[in-house]
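Anyone? Bumping this.
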Amino acid sequence: MSAPISIPRVSLSWLLVAQVLVIIPHLAHLPVWIIALWLGCAGWRIQIFRMRARYPNAWAKAGLMLGAAVGVFVSRGSLVGLDAGVVLLIAAFILKMLEMHTRRDALVLIFLGFFAVVTAYLFDDSIQLALFSLLPVTTLLAALIGLQQSGLAMRPWPTARLAAGLLVQALPLMLLLFVFFPRLGPLWSLPAPHSKGVTGLSDSMAPADIAELSRSTALAFRASFEGAVPPRDQLYWRALTLERFDGRRWSQASAAQLPLAPAWEKRGEPLRYSIVMQPSSQRWLFGLDVAETTLDQARQMNDFRLQRQQPVERSLLYQVTSWPQALREPAGTATGLRRALQLPATGDPRSRVWAAELKRRYPQPEELVQALLGHFNREPYGYTLRPPQVGVNSIDDFLFETRNGFCAHYAGAMTFVLRAAGIPARVVAGYQGGEYNPSGNYLQVRQFDAHAWVEYWQAGRGWVSVDPTFQVAPERIEQGLEEALADEQSFLESSPFSPLRYRQLGWLNQLRLSWDSLNYGWQRWVLGYQGAQQLETLQRWFGRIDARWIALSLVGGGGLLLSLLALWLFKPWQRERDLQRRLFQRFEQLLARHAVRRAPGEGARAYAERAMQALPEQAQAIRAFAAAYEAQQYAGGDASVVDLRMHLRALRRALPWRFTTGRRE
Amino acid sequence: MRTKLEACQSAVNQVLLGKESQVRLALTCLLARGHLLIEDLPGMGKTTLSHALAKVLGLSFQRIQFTSDLLPGDILGTSVFDKDSGQFVFHPGPIFAELVLADEINRATPKSQSALLEAMEEGQVTIEGATRPLPEPFFVIATQNPVSQGGTFTLPESQLDRFLMRLSLGYPAKAAEKALLLGDSRRSLLPRLEPIFNHSELASIQAEVPKIRASDALIDYVLRLVEATRSQPQFAWGLSPRASLALLAAARAWALLAERDYVIPEDVQAVLPSVVGHRLRERADPSGHGGGALVQWLLREVPAL
């Protein structure tokens, strides 16, 4: 018990290694000064270890702590919240390492380290990080082992081996918990750490926004079909509709949030597929027309988009069934149609005149639409991500002057003309196409697949989708953005190292697709293994069970296990004697503080007599306790520990208070 | 009754000066119905102790001086032809006394030794086909001289095991020896001792010994002691169950003398050296007398609680 309280060398080395490994995943979102603080403190710590420097004194510690807190406040604007909290935690982890003096400090540091490893998952839940975090966990365990086992105190590798062994042994338990442990909803909602930075569609669209998106290779979602994947030109993933036009931007109508279910008729064969969506910080989900989902808290809105109650802040898996040939609102609703005819009071006069002329020439909406599409096809319109500047009358300028643009220009212009011609129409924003991954049999849709198209309404036929971009640049629809921009060389020009630019290199592309497939599996089967999916899996294994059954059996099984463990540990059948023994041990500890220690072979009476000689003033209390103990242990007195407790308390009161424990000599 | 035990001890202590603990152990041995082996140099008061004990306890006393030509008949007795009655008449030997002092037991041949030891164990003797009970109580104090081993027959371990205790009196302390030299001759003091107990009283107090409470916790301690002798490498062999029974019986008697009706570990520790000392041998020296060091190890290392 009188082992030195200092930290063994191996443990310290492992802790230093672990610190590096714990902080690495956080580097991306830590302010720079934290890294400087870290390097400084680690250097100081090493100098302390080499006996070239001293431990920081109280003032230095207080200054560092205050400095770190102020730094967090300045760089994050707050001391609470997820982002600031993590920075604060890392700062504490760094500073504690410097201040670490005793074993207890080292234990605190190790547990802080485990916690910091877990917080990294808040920022990144990829498979790489999950695998990487095994490293810091192993080193932290090695440090813990080095701290506890004096036999291994000087040998670093056995501790690491033992730590890795422990981790491997924990695997079955981990799998068991992963499969069976119920996923509880969060008790409080955490704002996602970096919701500002997510790229994706927003609820209003100016043409420049889509151009911005098309520069991003970030993943939007992945989709796995049951059965064959439909051809590319049918993959119009709807996100939302934009119905309000202010002469410059298209935006979502406020009425789109009204909880009105649209009227539609299922027709034709449905498509079934599942989607794993990346965090978007928006509430809408993606689906092919007309989509229905089984996801809780998600519903079909009146413009046929799917929307969830909460924004999607982390990866989300949902199942969708789509009827591509469905008839959508054949009767229409007065307010809905009125919204679909809204135009700004003034502006774009040439387009309005042209629309009136078209209307005169083609009284049927269908004919008019065909004429319009034919116009785009015939006339020298071009597809480019670098459109020329347009003036105040943006539609006029585009239709009659520049004639160059991309999907957002075409969709906006066509909707404008249709409305001006009295045909209800709206812009649909979403994604088009996607890259098929043969190794995982799924589609991956990236931000540069963002697209806008048009749907117009016709009595009896309901809403019909048309894509003017297809008339201008069919390769955009049939082969993707890269082909559409082949002449221009503007595809991903700002990210020269993106592997997506080198798709023509076979092996590289193969590697990229396999890696993506692995990530998709991780997201679908590991991260996506939540509530409903877990229940489904368990039902497949155990037949019809519900959440309550799982909860009950888990609680029951856990309770049984714990009570067996408790029985084994506490052995209630010899409890009374154990309690007496424990009280006697406390009696010994109490006297040991006054330098009266019991030899192993010393009986209670002999010990008490010795203690009485050493502490004559407390002789009364010592004798009383020893006599009570003896009577209960040996004389078969009524085995009640209450007396013993009482005598012990009396003794404690009688003894002068002393802080030193019996351990230190 | 208990005060009488005190009186016994103080009476013996007046004769045998400065040997309180040995007197107490000897009395313990007697109360536990065990036999006593005293191992010491000549002239240390072995005979005086036996005599004094016999006196105060009101026991008949016989002394057998063991020599190499001693025959079993000299101990047990023989039948002699009485020509008046024309029959063989049994003349009981010195063993038919309540307290027998077997002086220098290792001087006799094994045959004669075993005659005594069998009597000690069985509480009866069988001579010429007739079984004769020994008196009750029956208590043997044997003495051995540890030096001048020439022409002796060392008691084998199996015989040693029959003695509940082995004591050694040792030299008296200086003050005690001074009082010894100043006072009357010990032998002249002995006749003046009055018996304090009669037979029935002694029997009843001996019957009380097994009733002394030995709790579970205490038995565990005894078991730990015995287990240690069986498992630790320095012991040539472990204690037998007879030894653990002996240890418990002696501890009970010791507790009785301490006027307690339950045994505590200190009682066991008090009797441990004399009860197990002669039963233990060091592995390094199985024929020697390492018992003392081993007992000290037991006292020191085996957890008492």
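Late reply, but here is one note on the structure posted above: Chain A has four domains: 9-176, 206-343+425-502, 540-569, 572-654.
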